[in-house]
Amino acid sequence: MVSLDYPPTIGGITAHVYELSQALKNIGCKISVATKFVDNNQKAFETVNDVNIYRFKLKYVGFSYGLQINYFLKDLIKKEKFDIIHIHGMRPLEFFNIKDIPLVYTNHTSGYLKRIKKGGYRIPLLKRLFDKPKLFLAPSEELLDVPFKFNAKKVFISNGVISNKFTRNTEVRSEIRNELGIKDNEKLGIVTRRMVWKNGVNFLALATKYFKNQDLKLLFIGDGEQYDEIKTILEENFKNRYILLGSKRHDEIIDYYSAADLSILPSLMEATSISGLEAMAASLPLIGTNVGGIPVIIKDGENGYLCESESPEDLAQKIDKLLDSDHVLMGEKSKEMVDKYFDWIEIAKKTLDQYKSIV
Fold this sequence. Notes:
Elements: E1 2-3, H1 12-26, E2 32-36, E3 45-48, E4 51-56, H2 65-79, E5 85-88, E6 103-106, H3 110-118, H4 122-130, E7 135-138, E8 153-156, H5 170-180, E9 187-192, H6 201-207, E10 216-221, H7 227-237, E11 242-244, H8 250-259, E12 262-265, H9 274-281, E13 286-289, H10 294-297, E14 304-307, H11 312-324, H12 327-341, H13 344-358
Parallel strand pairs: 1-5, 2-4, 5-6, 6-7, 7-8, 9-10, 9-12, 10-11, 12-13, 13-14
Antiparallel strand pairs: 3-4
């Protein structure tokens, strides 16, 4: 596995690479991860939970990062034998030129969608990159929809979740709701999103102006470039009904799902959302935009509702509709779906089958 995103960094790609690595290990694969140093206290090599972690330092400007990573990988394959190299994210792909080991690439990033949208010279650059892998994976159909031909086999494999890590805990629910000042009759919506453009959290803040349900409060976990803008909107439209906890480590977020009554995904771009799957594993119904991989995890009217992206009014309407429905039953449906379709072990088995198809 080659990824700039790996614990202790946070985010969807980090969670994907970590959980997939653990699940592949648990079904008998030997896994190594090549990732960057986050701080000077980390070791250049260590084994954590039976996964070998090799860290590289990146110097100078971002354009040269791909070249540095490629040099690092070439040195690494002289020391260790690998059957597959699996790259996550575009930067490690840019200067990759190792010929003797089959390359797998997972197209996670909204950066890809931005490049496609801007077009121009970016399209031939993307084609050059996508000609390198033998297997091209994506956690949403949208990220497989590439507007040019290339040789790799293209396969959709969703994100996953370790369901039992997020099972609702009634004792923890009471403790956290007391800490947050949430009354028994109040409904708590949780939003575990970085406050950046693609996640659409500002549209949820704007939606608070249109809520009819007076018992709803919102809990935001995450920070980012839109933090101040979102706080200003909430203070104007939703005063005393919101809580901003800022950024938290992935393991710190888990208990907050138990305290919530629904989860909200207001994204403008999204794969099969890991935070959405985590909320489902905690028996929460979902409200999410009808983009990317979100319709894969939200079956409209069964475990939640889909809404239009960039529409505060529709988002508010669907949240009110959910709270007027049997949202507890919808949350139970979420849990059933996660256990059946989105367990990381099942995702790992599908990924391994695809590995075998190119070796």
